[in-house]
Amino acid sequence: MKPMLSIAFAAAALALAAGGASAQEAKFPTKPVRLIVASPGSPQDVVARIAGQELSKLWGQGVVVENRAGAGSLLSIQTATKAAPDGYSILVASSAYAITPALYPQAGFDAEKDLVPVAILAVSPNVIVASPALKVDSLREVFDRARGGAKLEFGSPGLGTGPALVMDYLVKVLAKVDIPHIPYKGAVAPMTAASTGEVALASTGLAPAVPFIKAGKVKALAVTSASRSPLLPEVPTLAEAGFPAFHDEQWIGAWVPAGTPPALIERLSADMMRAVQVPEAKQRLAGVGYDIPAMSRQEFSAYVRKELAKWAQVAKATGAKAE
How far apart are the C-alpha atoms of 285 and 94, rounded to whole Å? Predict the structure, then answer.
């Protein structure tokens, strides 16, 4: 084959391959899509199931929520990094995505390179609750008791989760009291433990805590956001509870493995943001304390980078690490 013909043939082959890829992306999805999340009942699980129902309607394909519980969100993240970059495996994770690298130096993944941010889906405060057996009405009362020698413990959804590190920072750095951490598996377990008096306090996302709070099984002491939650308007913020130096919102986002075609990433981003904006989905999310932020994919990428730096500093201040 002559050189010019060889070059022309190669160019034609590349064009055909590109056309084939574009056609595949246009048809996406042609089979069920899995949303990889941490433990059942976790905030990311709640959001993933609501978004997944709308995505299934939008795509005309099944959307399966696959739980990979363990080590906070680490196992779910690791699972996503090993998935094929074809859009059929999407990680849905909480702000623990930004915390995990600070706690697990050998996490086995690069948070800025191995996965690509797709969309931020929802934000919500964490909430700190007390066991009814403790008979307190404020965080100040809790910390005064701890300073007075009371043996108290707090539960969380596990090491590497946002609620765990938020509470650890509050206890060790801001209040400067000794309240040991008891990590549980999943977001519901610490609520159950607080309701029965197994632990004095618990810190978790708002969604799994709301049923316990509404039923009077635990006492909500503070939300961690800058403003009160419409879902719990009577519950003060950390600033109102006496700690104006810190606030945090738990966010839920989606990622795909690096190497996923850019056009497909943009398609997924638009579809996922559209799914949570469907009135029924939006109402369901609001019902468990979630707002839907107006943030582009690029803005979400920048936000994740800031969160990675923020939680690295918080982990250093608290001495928090995986055990």
Answer: 15
